[in-house]
Amino acid sequence: MSETPSPTRGGARAVDGSDAEKRQVAALSVLAAIALTGMKLVVGLLTGSLGILSEALHSGLDLIAAAMTYFAVRLAGQPADEGHPYGHGKFENLSALFETLLLLGACVWIVVEAVRRLLGEPVEVDPSVWAFLVMGVSIAVDFSRSRALQRAAQKYDSQALEADALHFSTDIWSSLVVVGGLACVLVAERTGLAWLRNADAVAALCVALIVVGVSLRLGRRTLSGLLDEAPAGLVQRIHKRLSELQVQEVGRIRLRKGGATTFVDLSLGVLGDTSVEEGHRLADEAEGAVCELVPGADVTVHVEPAPAAPGSEMTLARQVERVVLSEDRTCQPHDILITRASEGLYLSLHCLVPGNMPVEEAHALTDRLEEALRRHIAGVGRVVIHIEPRSAGAGP
Fold it and tell me: What one-character-per-residue DSSP string does 306-355 give?
């Protein structure tokens, strides 16, 4: 038998509110990237600063990445359909992968240009007030956008927004490096220290190194999502939690993530005579346990028959139940307690019997049940049977 989650327990999301906010944050990032790219490009061309031009290219790629993020968020927000039964969340992973490739391409251009200037004729750089002003504005805007994107990424578990936030955060550090390079050129003009004139190209190389580091980290996370890699230790934590349930075994556990939703597919082994109702209850418990560890997860639980572990309390309890029912079908055993002691097994159980059963007959029944339990179950030391009247109309 199998159990599939309900919309609330399975982590269905509030589509309208979350997607609207994600699109709004992504759209504002596109506008910010347009403004920054334009400013850096104009000032870089006017001042001849490779550092600012490299930053303009970096911001241009951020603009492309921000636009891709915006469209990826829109596509990922579409509900599951026949062609995409797990939803469209992977569009966010694809967007992040393309952003990684764009960043690595920018690094190649920056390194080539920086090395060319260091080895060839240096290009005059004008460290004007406009250069410092545009970089200051860039840092302020990058700081604002990175915080907004990071908050939205954490709130909605969006890899696309997280990647965009990482881009803007990287821009802050790379902009600071460029400002440092421009300051060194300015000092060189004032002091005559010629070697400081290469600081702009060196700053560009530093920008490239920063971007490479970010690209590799982003690429690693992106591939992890695309290849359905489970978070480290999560399967083990889920297995440990499920083992605490009243099941014979925990079978396979498979995880995959699509956008903000984690899909969990697992199987539980129960005794073959477990009722459908009990299996349904165990599936609900398993789903709830998984959602405690992975909030919002979409959980599918497969309940399958499994042999009981030899000598386990559950096995002995089922054996006690079968012995009692074989002796008297009108007797309903419940609350079976098994304790292992030095003198043997201590069995305690309650039995529901017809309310009109005479006391003498009930006493004879307990003697007969105790004898049967000792005969069929090895190692029984003490048996305590509590007889209880069954309400009229209840039971067989």
Answer: -PPPTT-HHHHHHHHHHHHHHH-TT-EEEEEEEEEETTEEEEEEEEEEET
Cβ(301)–Cβ(253) under 8 Å? no
Superfamily covering domain 234-305: Cation efflux protein, cytoplasmic domain (3.30.70.1350)
* pLDDT, greater one: 395 or 272: 272
Q: What is the reported pLDDT for 245? A: 84
Q: Is 263 helix (H, G, I), strand (E, B) or coil?
A: strand
Asked if residue 43 lies in contact with residue 74, where contact means CB atoms within 8 angstroms, the answer is no
Work out the number of other CB atoms within 10 angstroms of the CB of residue 82.
Answer: 5
**CB-CB neighbours of 336 under 10 Å:** 19
Q: Could you say which DSSP state residue 85 is in? A: T
Threshold 0.85, pTM exceeds: no
The Cα–Cα gap between 135 and 49 comes to 12
Confidence grade of residue 396 (pLDDT, cut at 50, 70, 90): low
Contact 304, 320 (CB under 8 A): no
- The band of 194, judged by pLDDT with boundaries at 50, 70 and 90, is low
Most confident of 213-227, 343-357, 380-394: 343-357
In angstroms, the CA 111 to CA 54 distance is 10
CATH 3.30.70.1350 fits 313-390, yes or no: yes
Q: Let me know: does 255 contact 228? Beta carbons within 8 Å.
A: yes
For the chain, the domains span 12-226, 234-305, 313-390
Q: What single-letter amino acid sits at 11?
A: G
Q: What is the residue whose two structure tokens read 């019997």?
A: 353
